[in-house]
Amino acid sequence: MSRLFGNLPREVLVLTAVAFAVAVGFGVVAPAIPVFARDFGVGRTAAGAVISAFAFMRLVSALASGRLVNRVGERVVLATGIGIVAVSSALAGLSQSYTQLLLLRGIGGVGSAMFTVSAISLLLRVTDSDQRGRATSMWQTGFLLGAIAGPAIGGPLTDISLRAPFFVYAGTLAVAGTIGMVFLTRTTLHERFVDDRPEDHTSLGAALRVSGYRAALTASLGNGWALFGIRSSLIPLFVTEGIGASGTWTGIGLLVSAATQGGALLLVGNLTDRVGRRPGMIAGSALGTLSLGALAAHESLGVYVVAMGLFGIASAFLTVAPSAAVGDVVSGRGGTVVAAFQMAADLGAVIGPLLAGWLADTYSFSAAWALSAAIMGAALVTALLSTETKHRPAAASPEPAPGSTG
């Protein structure tokens, strides 16, 4: 275990605790949102729009959040973002109309973008090149554990009161914000120096000139498409309608995926720090392509369970290695660089369910899985053509030939 955690800064543990508190709260409120919206007498589409409003506002406000990070710093934006989500969630629990609920969830999406971009930026700045893989894996483990614990609390709570989960969510966010304010007031930020002076920030244009960063963007898009998009939207329908199994197998498959992802995260983080980011992105996108391609090729219960296990391992690689690569190319504050990376995942999560769902309705589930495999395959090709980012001197430095370790 000492090799997994090693000499990580205490800020990594603090940010992991913050991530856990945020994820628990989100998991508590998630089951209540569509039911609460329906309680105002709206249809299923309108109820789903409340969820989409949050995701959409996260997407469109991410770059502005990144610019804010560059201007005022990560810690201020992190605390402000958590505060916005907490207040908007508490007010959403007091909503007296559907319109109020919709607007407040949209405002919460803005705060969520601010929190996510600033937290990842800070995580990457408090660690050096040999720590970023393990740090990112710990951060993702906190989110994963919270995401598992939250719905277990939120489901029964929703049966008692449709408003209570919103207040619990606000409470967990208050806890997260308090942890951040108390333990992140003094942090040591790792900077790169140019002419003996620390660089102020890295522009998005400079980062885009690095092939490893472009590979990280493509991997983030694929992971958002599959992990945060179609896994939640298409899997339940595929199990019951495509395979003809009971809904219980939906839960079993998702549990297998979460278990393999959680079991692999810390090991993947250690491997990413020792071997590099490029091999992790190649392994993750290859496993993701294989798992989604298997679902496209053969609709059976056995293939489904195995594919979900493989995809869990793929997700571990795709949530760790690309994030570490982003940290490698950032000099000083990299708000917009991190924001674009996060936007790629959010974009995948928004358009993935729509396009895959349309293909499943119009053609077949196999067509939907085939498109998803192609998206992940594009990430694989981009990773293969990229160069290693670990120990790069600066974002805009000339690159060695594709395929070298650089």
Q: What proportion strand?
A: under 5%
Radius of gyration: 20 Å
> Could you spell the SSE succession in H and E letters?
HHHHHHHHEEHHHHHHHH
CATH class of the largest domain: Mainly Alpha
**Shape descriptor:** globular
Summarize the structure in words.
The protein has helices spanning 2-5, 10-29, 32-38, 44-72, 74-93, 98-125, 132-160, 164-183, 204-208, 211-233, 235-243, 248-275, 277-297, 301-329, 335-362, 365-384; strands at 193-194, 197-198. The protein is mostly helical and 406 residues long. It folds into two domains: 1-184, MFS general substrate transporter like domains (Growth Hormone, Chain: A, Up-down Bundle); 201-396, MFS general substrate transporter like domains (Growth Hormone, Chain: A, Up-down Bundle), CATH 1.20.1250. A two-stranded antiparallel ribbon has the order 1-2. A hairpin with a 2-residue loop joins strand 1 and strand 2 (197-198). It is globular. 53% of the residues are buried.
Summarize the structure.
This protein is mostly helical and 406 residues long. It is 79% helix and 1% strand. Helix 4 (44-72) runs parallel beside helix 6, helix 5 (74-93) packs antiparallel against helix 6 (98-125) and helix 10 packs across helix 15 (335-362).
Outline the fold blueprint.
Elements: H1 2-5, H2 10-29, H3 32-38, H4 44-72, H5 74-93, H6 98-125, H7 132-160, H8 164-183, E1 193-194, E2 197-198, H9 204-208, H10 211-233, H11 235-243, H12 248-275, H13 277-297, H14 301-329, H15 335-362, H16 365-384
Antiparallel strand pairs: 1-2
Helix pairs in contact: 2-7, 2-8, 3-4, 4-5, 4-6, 4-15, 5-6, 5-8, 6-14, 6-15, 7-12, 7-14, 10-13, 10-14, 10-15, 10-16, 12-14, 13-14, 13-16, 15-16
